[in-house]
Design a protein that fits this description.
Elements lengths: L8 E9 L4 H11 L7 E7 L4 E7 L2 H4 L2 H7 L4 E9 L12 E3 L6 E6 L5 H10 L11 H9 L5 H11 L5 E6 L2 E6 L8 E5 L2 E5 L3 H6 L2 E5 L4 E6 L2 E6 L8 E2 H7 L5 E2 L2 E2 H15 L6 E4 L5 H11 L2 E2 L3 E3 L12 H11 E3 L1 H4 L3 E6 L6 H12 L4 E6 L21 H4 L2 H8 L3 E4 L2 H10 L5 E2 L1 H4 L12 H8 L3
Helix pairs in contact: 9-10, 9-16
The protein binds adenosine monophosphate and iron/sulfur cluster (SF4).
The site of adenosine monophosphate has 18 residues, from α13.
């Protein structure tokens, strides 16, 4: 029996309507979004009369062959997806965009995020005769849409969106339209751009930079945008919105050059590093950031304290994500392969290491040990986010309570476990100040605070429920 993969999918999506190089541009855009998903990739394109798709497993360059890309070339409209899933089915059938065929027309669908009520909706649909081909929660959307009998396409889509709960950014392709929708909490990022007059959408603006498109604006919580040959239509599927953009996108997930509300993630991370400096009172000779995601925070920390920033840790660019490697021993080996200290820089020095987050503690444990072995006199850890204590149910893989070190231990116990001379986390208040300074309209910070903006009752795993009941 297939386990339903409702958890832990974080992805990158892209779509473009009405461009002679739609599929090539989609390919380039997906390449720039590769950090959002490395497990599979695909493109669905429309000729205007029918849809055609190609997808495969692994990194984009191996997922799609030259021949597959060539077959998509004549199509002027395209959507694409890179997938990162860590639980449930890791097979081709789950790689998006999905392509559904029916006598009333084709449907291409790609999603970033997690529906929290997918399991219940799916069961109800199955009991009513629906047969699912994948274990992904996105398929639920297609079934619900197919069952809508009344109204035009847009009103049907809006009705379905109102039935979904959770974090979702959808790109939905019909032969003659591209529809884009963001959930009413706006948890996952979704951006609107334009290339040579053609509208495009992407999870991050780095995709626009990669294809030479202009970044127009962030798509709003609850917004539904329809793009056709006749132009663009802006609408909302609900007025009851409550923006809660994912904090982890700023802290770790998004690429440093990607912009949110015209501010780069780099600048936000730098400011988080500055804020940490006001809370970390440690004397040191150098500050080093864990490459790549923490270099900006280390830079801000260095500017604020006057402590010189050095590249004391190097990252091997040919090692993928260590975080999702199954098994603790394999994860430790992967971190060792990925990061290595520069002895010449750290030997005899009191070092402050800045990392953006500690989840299981594997990375910091290794870093402290490696820097000390390389001759560092003292190693102080600074974390440019608050203690990460809770799992995410909205599409970012931050594991279960049992694996999250800060849900079991206080900072002093964590310091002891990772072997650092001191450990300082950014406070929740300072993190909020940084976000509000950048004009944030509201952030999700549930993995730090436990304040889940969307009810998660339906998605809590049985073992998590046990912990919750025991008050853990
Ligand atoms: P850990 O080694 O388990 O403590 O994980 C922390 C490291 O993984 C940090 O260096 C983070 O930059 C990175 N990280 C944090 N959250 C995630 C995530 N959701 N997916 C992959 N890596 C992450
Ligand atoms: Fe992002 Fe954390 Fe909220 Fe998940 S729980 S959406 S990782 S801020």
């Amino acid at each position: 029996m297939h386990e339903f993969s409702g958890l832990n999918e974080e992805c990158g999506i892209f779509g473009i309507w009405g461009h002679p190089e739609a599929s090539e541009l989609t390919y380039i855009a997906l390449h720039s979004l590769q950090h959002r998903g490395q497990e599979g990739a695909g493109i669905v394109a429309s000729s205007g009369d029918y849809l055609f798709g190609a997808r495969g497993m692994g990194l984009l360059t191996s997922a799609l062959s030259k021949e597959q890309l060539a077959s998509l070339k004549p199509f002027p409209h395209a959507i694409g997806h890179v997938r990162y899933a860590t639980t449930g089915g890791s097979e081709l059938s789950n790689v998006q965009p999905f392509l559904f065929k029916s006598h009333t027309g084709d449907l291409g669908l790609a999603q970033n995020g997690n529906l929290v009520n997918a399991m219940n909706v799916r069961r109800a649909l199955e009991d009513d005769g629906a047969i699912f081909q994948t274990t992904s929660d996105s398929e639920v959307f297609a079934h619900l849409l197919r069952r809508e009998k009344t109204g035009n396409r847009k009103s049907k889509i809006k009705k379905v969106l109102r039935q979904l709960k959770g974090a979702f950014a959808f790109v939905i392709m019909h032969e003659d339209s591209l529809t884009v929708a963001l959930d009413k909490h706006g948890v996952r990022p979704l951006m609107l751009g334009q290339k040579d007059g053609a509208y495009c959408v992407a999870s991050e603006t780095c995709a626009f930079t990669a294809i030479g498109a202009e970044y127009i604006r962030d798509i709003e919580a609850g917004e539904v945008i329809t793009i056709t040959d006749d132009g663009i239509d802006f609408d909302h599927y609900t007025e009851r919105t409550s923006p809660h953009m994912c904090s982890m996108e700023y802290i770790y997930f998004a690429r440093a050059d990607s912009e949110f509300r015209n501010t780069s993630t780099y600048r936000i991370r730098k400011e988080l590093g500055r804020a940490l400096a006001t809370e970390m009172d440690v004397e040191a000779d150098i500050v080093i950031g864990v490459p790549d995601s923490s270099l900006a925070a280390a830079n801000g920390f260095s500017e604020a304290t006057g402590i010189r920033q050095e590249q004391g840790l190097l990252k091997n660019r040919y090692v993928g994500r260590t975080f999702i490697t199954p098994g603790q021993e394999a994860r430790e080996r992967a971190v060792r392969m990925k990061l290595s200290p520069v002895r010449d820089i750290v030997e005899g020095k009191r070092v402050i290491v800045i990392d953006d987050s500690i989840v299981r503690g594997t990375t910091s444990r290794f870093i402290v040990k490696a820097l000390k072995q390389a001759g560092a006199e003292e190693v102080h850890m600074g974390v440019s986010s608050p203690p990460l204590k809770n799992p995410c149910y909205y599409g970012i893989d931050v594991s279960t309570h049992a694996e999250i070190i800060a849900s079991r231990k206080n900072p002093e116990e964590i310091r002891e476990e990772i072997g650092a001379d001191s450990l300082t986390y950014l406070s929740v208040d300072r993190m909020h100040e940084v976000y509000y300074g950048f004009g944030s309209k509201g952030q999700c910070d549930a993995c730090f605070t436990g304040n889940y903006p969307i009810d998660i009752e339906e998605t809590i795993l049985p073992q998590e429920k046990d912990l919750k009941q025991k008050g853990v």
